[in-house]
């Protein structure tokens, strides 16, 4: 099941570099929403759809962003898999 | 592929019928209630029928095949794995505790909402697809294969058992509480009844039975959670989507908070509590003398009443007062200091609760103390969010679920579904907290005691520790600071607050039971698998047949379940703290080793083992030296020294970076991992590799 020799063809190493880049960008967004916005919660107190903005962010906005990150990642990785021919073989 | 689609369609059909049948069942009970079925019967019917349902699913899914038993045959479609993960994830603490925490601490409680959802970003991006590609059975499995040698596997196993066991005890405790509330049986009996429900399912069919039961449990718990909130929202705002409209209720709550803070009656109550706190502080200076004086006074009063031939009611009241005095100095000290703490809390505005929408304590523009309070509170909020997120992405019973999908692609999609199903509850809990607070502020506070809403009186009667009222200024009207509410009441009483029939209260309890049982199932399986697969099969007897491994796993399951039930029946102190501690432990032990194992080929076995020990060590050390209950358990007397004022619950914030640092540094000064380990890393990174 597991090959003994670590050999990676060039197009595959490009795939891995792109995967890492995508992961890093999405993690930055995640950190920005989780810790950046939250750090300035007291200052971001303006009204937003009836809520104080930072309250809405922590109670709903951040959760929506997390959902988008995860769904976007699944979608983008599917395309990346196809583009580099590393998708799983259909059984 | 088409076989998979057919399987999914079949599941869709089964669960659609199941949901319909469940609704009909609830409607039927509602009808019977109208015809006069007693409440306690409704409770029993809910309890027994849901447990019987889980048992039937367990029996139908019984198996002795290893792949079926450990990872449900790896053919759980993304949506259903998402639902099962949702049920696995949402414990009694999420279902019952979360809304209560939000009620009591407002914005600051949102750390739990963010932490318990944001962790799935880490699961999706860093772990789930790669673990699925690895495709074995447990999390210690990955550590063992990736890093080689016995140590990483053994440490992983130990950490998995410690985290899961503490968490499991809390779930079984929750099961006992809910069952005894629902049916009135004794707590211990409730524990063992619930245990039966857990065991019959995971014992017979392992992961396969647990998965299909968890899907059924998710449906019950989400329906049970949403109905009262939607109803309450319709009642208050006319809109059936509480998540979209509770902002306006929050505005009204905030306005009312301003009024209550300066209300003369509230000020009077607070002043009375301030005086009481002062008296108690005075007494605590010399408890022995104060106790003697109290006793003498009470006895004198009793004698005086008897001599004056006072009415017998007055005499028996005085007798009661005398016998209610603390027995000795030790118990006097604990009783009085508890009473003093309560009085101090109640001398503060809004019953000691922070204004609901206020971010963090203190004030960044205030004096030095207020600024200090603000930055400490904000730092702790961020640290807690970090620990909960990283902990979520490291709890073995959650990660294990992603072994059960058919492909890597399905694993990625399955995390999206997991978050979606979790989101439904977590986005509703803050709404529920605000709606209940609105209700309390507007229909309970400021109401004459004899005209309080029905639910206040009934919960007051059920359990005085959940809801207590004391008219300290004796004006016959309830002030906010005269009302003591435990967080759990927010969810438990929500149906009655909305004026729904009792059957919905039973439904909510069944939902809480489903939440606790589903989590307990997943945890129990994690522990039993760690022991049977990682310890027995991989280390003791690698030639064991699959049937033998499954049998051993089942026996262990029974032993672990009984041990956990035994511990839970002792009612260990501070159980909520233990649950939160499990997150910090898991975060520090697993997260660095797992992530570096996938993303950094250079990470090697000795570094991983040392990193896990160091990360966990720092976390445990910090917790043991700073958490009052653990300090007492370990007999630590040196003064508490907090690092950057971080509370013990967030100890993982130190353990995780230490774990990463140790793994990186030690790896760099020791040998490269073997070609086999590097090949494994390549293998998990590319979905097509066989």
* Strand neighbour order, sheet with most strands of chain B: 1-2
CATH architectural type of the largest domain in chain B: Up-down Bundle
The number of helical elements of chain A comes to 2
Distance between the termini of chain A: 16 Å
> Mean pLDDT across all residues of chain A, rounded?
85
CATH top level class name of the largest domain in chain B: Mainly Alpha
Walk me through the structure:
The complex is a heterodimer of chains A (91) and B (690). Chain A has 91 residues and is mainly α. Chain A has a domain at 34-85. Chain A is built from two helices and two strands. In chain A, strands 1-2 form a two-stranded antiparallel sheet. Chain A is elongated, with a radius of gyration of 19 Å. Chain A starts with 9 loop residues before the first helix and ends in an 8-residue tail after the last helix. Chain B has helices spanning 2-34, 39-60, 66-71, 78-89, 92-105, 110-134, 139-147, 150-183, 187-237, 242-262, 264-285, 287-307, 312-323, 329-346, 368-392, 396-399, 408-426, 429-444, 454-462, 489-492, 494-497, 502-540, 546-569, 575-599, 605-626, 628-634, 652-669, 675-685; strands spanning 467-469, 483-485. Chain B is an all-alpha fold and 690 residues long. In chain B, helix 2 (39-60) runs parallel beside helix 22 (502-540) and helix 15 packs across helix 24. Chain B folds into three domains: 1-261 and 361-570, Sodium/glucose cotransporter; 264-360, no CATH class; 573-690, no CATH class. The mean pLDDT of chain B is 86. Chain B starts with a helix and ends in a 5-residue tail after the last helix. Chain B has a two-stranded antiparallel sheet with strand order 1-2. In chain B, 76% of the residues lie in helices and 1% in strands. At the A-B interface, helix 1, strand 2 and helix 2 of A face helix 6, helix 10, helix 15, helix 17 and helix 28 of B.
């Amino acid at each position: 099941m597991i090959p003994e020799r670590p050999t990676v063809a060039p197009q595959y190493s490009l795939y891995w570099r792109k995967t890492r880049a995508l992961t890093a960008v999405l993690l930055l967004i995640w950190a920005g929403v989780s810790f950046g916005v939250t750090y300035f919660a007291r200052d971001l107190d303006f009204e937003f759809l009836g809520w104080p903005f930072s309250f809405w962010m922590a109670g709903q906005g951040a959760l929506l962003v997390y959902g988008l990150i995860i769904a976007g990642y699944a979608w983008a990785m599917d395309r990346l898999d196809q583009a580099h021919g590393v998708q799983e073989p259909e059984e | 592929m088409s076989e998979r689609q057919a399987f999914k369609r079949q599941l869709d059909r089964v669960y659609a019928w199941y949901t319909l049948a469940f609704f009909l069942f609830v409607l039927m009970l509602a009808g019977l209630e109208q015809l006069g079925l007693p409440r306690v019967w409704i409770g029993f019917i809910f309890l027994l029928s849901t447990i019987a349902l889980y048992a039937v699913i367990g029996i139908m899914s019984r198996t002795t095949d290893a792949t079926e038993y450990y990872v449900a045959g790896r053919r759980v479609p993304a949506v259903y794995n998402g639902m099962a993960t949702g049920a696995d994830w949402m414990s009694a603490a999420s279902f019952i505790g979360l809304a209560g925490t939000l009620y009591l601490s407002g914005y600051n409680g949102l750390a739990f909402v963010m932490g318990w959802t944001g962790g799935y970003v880490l699961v999706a991006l860093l772990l789930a697809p790669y673990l699925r590609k690895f495709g074995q059975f447990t999390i210690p499995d990955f550590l063992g294969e990736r890093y080689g040698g016995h140590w990483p596997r053994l440490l992983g196993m130990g950490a998995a058992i410690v985290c899961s066991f503490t968490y499991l005890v809390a779930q079984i405790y929750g099961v006992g509480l809910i069952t005894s509330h629902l049916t009135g049986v004794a707590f211990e009996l409730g524990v063992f009844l619930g245990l039966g429900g857990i065991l019959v399912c995971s014992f017979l069919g392992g992961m396969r039975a647990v998965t299909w039961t968890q899907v059924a449990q998710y449906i019950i718990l989400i329906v049970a959670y949403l109905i009262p909130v939607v109803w309450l929202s319709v009642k208050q705002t006319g809109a059936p989507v509480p998540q979209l409209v509770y902002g306006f209720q929050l505005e009204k709550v905030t306005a009312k908070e301003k009024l209550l803070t300066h209300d003369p009656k509230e000020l009077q109550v607070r002043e009375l509590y301030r005086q009481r706190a002062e008296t108690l502080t005075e007494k605590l200076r010399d408890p022995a003398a104060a106790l003697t004086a109290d006793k003498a006074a009470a006895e004198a009063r009793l004698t005086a009443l008897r001599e004056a031939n006072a009415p017998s009611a007055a005499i028996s009241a005085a007798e009661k007062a005398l016998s209610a005095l603390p027995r000795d100095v030790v118990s006097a000290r604990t009783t009085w200091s508890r009473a003093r703490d309560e009085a101090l809390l109640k001398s503060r505005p809004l019953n000691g609760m922070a204004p609901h929408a206020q971010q963090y304590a203190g004030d960044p523009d205030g004096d030095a103390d207020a600024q200090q309070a603000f930055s400490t509170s904000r730092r702790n909020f961020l640290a807690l969010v970090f620990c909960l997120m990283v902990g979520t992405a490291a709890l073995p019973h959650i990660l294990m679920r992603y072994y059960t999908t058919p492909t890597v692609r399905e694993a990625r999609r399955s995390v999206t579904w997991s978050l979606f199903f979790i989101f439904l509850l977590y986005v509703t809990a803050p709404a529920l907290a605000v709606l209940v607070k609105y209700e309390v502020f507007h229909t309970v506070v400021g109401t004459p005691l004899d005209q309080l809403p029905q639910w206040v009186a009934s919960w007051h009667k059920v359990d005085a520790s959940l809801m207590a009222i004391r008219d300290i200024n004796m004006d016959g009207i309830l002030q906010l600071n005269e009302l003591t509410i435990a967080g759990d009441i927010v969810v438990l009483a929500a149906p009655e607050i909305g004026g729904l029939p009792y059957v919905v209260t039973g439904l909510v309890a069944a939902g809480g039971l489903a939440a606790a049982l589903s989590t307990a199932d997943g945890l129990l399986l994690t522990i039993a698998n760690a022991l049977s697969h990682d310890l027995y099969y991989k280390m003791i007897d690698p030639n064991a047949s699959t049937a033998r491994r499954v049998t051993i796993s089942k026996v262990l399951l029974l032993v672990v379940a009984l041990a956990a039930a035994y511990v839970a029946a002792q009612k260990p102190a501070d159980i909520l703290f233990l649950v939160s501690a499990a997150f910090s432990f898991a975060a520090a032990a697993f997260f660095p080793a797992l992530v570096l194992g996938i993303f950094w080929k250079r990470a090697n076995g000795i570094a991983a083992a040392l990193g896990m020990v160091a990360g966990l060590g720092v976390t445990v050390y910090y917790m043991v030296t700073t958490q009052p209950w653990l300090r007492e358990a370990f007999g630590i007397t040196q003064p508490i020294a907090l690092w950057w004022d971080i509370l013990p619950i967030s100890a993982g914030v130190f353990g995780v970076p230490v774990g990463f640092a140790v793994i990186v540094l030690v790896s760099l000064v020791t040998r490269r991992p073997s070609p086999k380990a590097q090949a494994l890393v390549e293998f998990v990174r590319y979905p097509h590799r066989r």
